[in-house]
Write a structure and sequence with these properties.
By secondary structure, this protein is of the alpha+beta class. GO terms for molecular function: serine-type endopeptidase activity.
Amino acid sequence: MAGHRAAPEEGPWVLSSSLAIWKVGSFAKASGRRSITVILGAHNIRKRERTQQVIPVKTAIRHPNYHPKVNDIMLLQGYDCPGVPGHLLNETSCPLPSAAEEGHPDCCREPPQAAQEGRAGEARMVWRVAGWGRLDLNTSTATLHEAELKIQQDEQCISCYRSHYNRATEI
């Protein structure tokens, strides 16, 4: 991913599938089940940082078209609310503050209307993205990086990626 290293503790706050850690404990081995632990607030995913929150996952629901390499998305329900240690969840989910209340106007905002309507490329918008992992073919990083990317026209993506591009799920 092009861009630059994100400043620690200044956001963007990201939860990535790379942070969904599958741990197999003794109970899990005996029962054949896996447990998922989510880490929130990490800047370097290889170090324990004071900003991190570790939350065990109570329920994980896979996307109907889940694929570990190209569509690795799940809906996760934790046992604790982020930012409220010891507050156990019941059948309702944790209330999430709006971006404006948190003072982070672009961390949680709604996607542009064109993207919601499936026309993400028509205005050549710029979106801020962040994550860990590969910086190029040979270099990876455990430190959060961010970049601004122009949304491409569907035709451009189709010409470059042919059978790998899905206009319904990619922008």
